[in-house]
Amino acid sequence: MGNINTEILEELVLYSPTNGKKRLGRNEDGGYVVVGGYEYDCFISVGIANEVSFEIDFYEENLDIPSFAIEAVSKRPSLLPDEIVFIKKRVGFDDNEKMTTLSEYIENYNDVFIKMDIEGAEWGWINAFGGSLKKVKQLTFEAHAMFPHTLSERLKNAHCQGLQPSEFQDNILSGLRLLNDTHNLVHVYENNSGPFIDIGGINYPSFPILTYLRKDCETNGLNRAGLPIEGVDFPCYPKKPNHEMNIWPFVFPKE
Question: What is the chain's alpha carbon radius of gyration, rounded to the nearest angstrom?
Fold first, then answer.
């Protein structure tokens, strides 16, 4: 168990983007940190439930691009901008009447922005979608149950997609490696309602929120800035504080 945990951390090296970071959406769960200053030709938000503050903010900055909201359970939220096409489907590892890998929606685009929160199904999606990742300029998503062996049975059942923890982590590791072929990890913060796991005497979040930027977008090398970022990172659940994450592989010593 410890070995694959370390392998996963080795795939989470954080880089510093050349452009600045900003928050879109509310200052709690539902808001995400992105890198500003880029143009897109398509926007896809997956797993919106009834909280659409991010979608509103992103759409207001990118009014003239095709936009889709994909949700498996909830009805179309009343506050979702009319111009965003609502699609009632699951996102995952197959394309059929009830599920999509998103390939059909990004086929005609090359600079897509994707925001995703799908409770653990993201890893199956990444592995199925891998060859199309090059079309995604920026991706932000909550990574669920990254270190599942020590989670409660309730959390395993909720997020591991019916897989045993070792199988689920194999999907995570292969997904991270696919992402790292085409993208750089440029931001990490925690869902502060989730548990931490001790790896080598350091506490790591089991439910981090990750932002990736395609490798044709410049970076300034390894991240050396402290985390969380004041004024950008806010607790997902305001009654609980954020934890400092000035740890490898997220923050590197200043040269």
Answer: 17
